[in-house]
TrEMBL record:
Enzyme Commission number(s): 2.4.2.10
Claim: Kinase is one of the keywords in the record: no
Coiled-coil segments on the chain, per record: none
Protein name: Orotate phosphoribosyltransferase
GO CC, alphabetical: cytoplasm
GO biological process: 'de novo' pyrimidine nucleobase biosynthetic process; 'de novo' UMP biosynthetic process; pyrimidine ribonucleoside biosynthetic process
Pfam families per record: Pribosyltran (PF00156)
Subunit annotation: Homodimer.
Phosphoribosyltransferase domain location: 45-158
Top-rank taxon, per record: Bacteria
Family indicated by similarity: Belongs to the purine/pyrimidine phosphoribosyltransferase family. PyrE subfamily.
Species name: Azomonas macrocytogenes
Length: 214
């Protein structure tokens, strides 16, 4: 695990973003951990989150033309990444987002910001079963743009509809990489190395045995 990944997990736990307990996921699965990116809820936390995303993005060498934040949660995330890429990596990138409802007046439409064109990097929080991200692909396709990759904070590495993970299915179906700041194995490594958090390890491992990739 890289140092920024360890720091990111520590930061997420400190902020209460990454929690351990019993949570019902969108997929209906009951998970012993949950990642709530909405709790990066101060200016400083959001700025720091943006720097972690930007570090993962810089590490990935991914080529793209525009950052896209899908409504709602992706919007501040894409903005934070755009700022961090400029301030930390000297890259002033175009970025845009969508509305959930089309506006009939003013500028109209559902897209706001830079044109959604060319190779699109989607910024989001978490992929579990991959439902949310597949909806985003439709928006990109409708603009005749093409996905270049997905940047997320946490890869839960859960099985999708096959033996592959939901993320591997997205990579296969759309021919694009999914880059994350951290994945479940790094969370497990972090838990194992922390005296107070070690108690959660068995449940997270059991969950991985049930829903994780083999
Ligand atoms: P999928 O559509 O199943 O990939 O689930 C992704 C969405 O689930 C995320 O965009 C979140 O809204 C939510 N989620 C989290 O935010 N954190 C988690 O740890 C797990 C989920 C989830 O419900 O699976």
């Amino acid at each position: 695990m890289q140092e920024y990944q360890r720091e990111f997990i520590r930061f997420a736990i400190e902020r209460g973003v990454l929690r351990f307990g019993e949570f019902t996921l969108k997929s209906g699965r009951t998970s012993p951990y949950f990642f709530n990116a909405g709790l990066f809820n101060t200016g400083s936390a959001l700025a720091r989150l943006g720097r972690f995303y930007a570090a993962a993005l810089a590490d990935s060498n991914l080529q793209f033309d525009v950052l896209f934040g899908p409504a709602y949660k992706g919007i501040p995330l894409a903005a934070a990444v755009a700022i961090a890429m400029d301030e930390q990596h000297g890259r002033d990138l175009p970025w845009c987002f969508n509305r959930k409802e089309a506006k009939a007046h003013g500028e109209g439409g559902t897209l706001v910001g830079a044109p959604l064109a060319g190779r699109v990097l989607i910024v989001d929080d978490v992929i579990t079963a991959g439902t949310a991200i597949r909806e985003v692909m439709q928006i990109i396709k409708a603009q005749n743009a093409r996905p270049a990759g997905v940047l997320i904070a946490l890869n839960r590495e859960e099985r999708g509809q096959s033996e592959l993970s939901a993320i591997q299915e997205v990579e296969r179906d759309f021919g694009i990489p999914v880059v994350s700041i951290v994945s479940l194995p790094q969370v497990l490594e972090y838990l194992a190395s922390d005296v107070q958090l070690k108690q959660y390890l068995p449940k997270v491992e059991a969950y991985r045995a049930q829903y994780g990739i083999r």
